[in-house]
Amino acid sequence: MRLPRAPEFRLRVPQLPAALVWDHNAHYHPWLLRQLPAAPGRVLDAGCGAGELAARLAGRAARVDAVDASPAMIERARALWPGAVTVRWIAGDLLDPVLPLAADGYDAVVAVSSLHHLPLRPGLRRLAGLVRPGGTLAIVGLYRSATPADFALEALRLPANGAAGVVMAARGRAGKPHEAGMPVRDPQDTLADLRAAAAVLAPGSQLRTRLFWRYTLLWRRPASPAGAAAGSAPLLAKDASD
Ligand SMILES: C[S@@+](CC[C@H](N)C(=O)[O-])C[C@H]1O[C@@H](n2cnc3c(N)ncnc32)[C@H](O)[C@@H]1O
Prior knowledge:
Layout: H1 24-27, H2 29-35, E1 42-46, H3 52-58, E2 63-68, H4 71-80, E3 87-91, E4 106-112, H5 120-129, E5 131-141, H6 148-170, H7 191-201, E6 206-210, E7 214-220, H8 225-231
Parallel strand pairs: 1-2, 1-4, 2-3, 4-5
Antiparallel strand pairs: 5-7, 6-7
Helix pairs in contact: 5-7
Bound molecules: S-adenosylmethionine.
């Protein structure tokens, strides 16, 4: 006899009233922008969606490459930000080795809520491998809650989310104007998975849990091969656990 399958436990973010919904990704853009080198030459926005961050980066970097696997998102980004003339909008899979990216890498690689769309270790290896020596990798990502500490934080997140929604609405900054049609998926990797992958692929990086269902990961790639030997795994290293 087949037993009915137990319902899958999923922690969903309870919906706020529409007027109080706000953009958790955009909330972390200022943190990302603060991590950039002073005058970056080239920046990659990996999984750019509708392009809001790439458009902001255009004001800081000489050139921005903004990649997304969804041609519809790239089309929308192009239409939304016609003034971002230094952005090269690229439709394609970040893991595609023939994607037309800068051959000698980027001063900064940023990714917001996109790493969990990729298999973790190949994805993180790819992003880290695109950072120039001395450059920066800054990720805002989603993770799967799995520990008592994670679930305790979930309990704090709910009232904080509502309170922040009230503040955002009062300041006229509520809403998620670019969300329609954006590809989304539930994160599968836990913080422990992310720490283990980062220890191998971005050694010395800082991973921090954030209040609004996000973590941030910051890695400065050592500037010299000597520094890399001391503090970093080879960028294209394979590890046994992929
Ligand atoms: C949740 S959205 C986040 C978009 C944007 N970074 C933001 O903060 O609004 C994730 C984006 O990653 C893109 N994506 C998923 N897999 C990808 C891949 N293999 N290569 C490039 N982009 C990918 C999706 O098309 C989607 O636009």
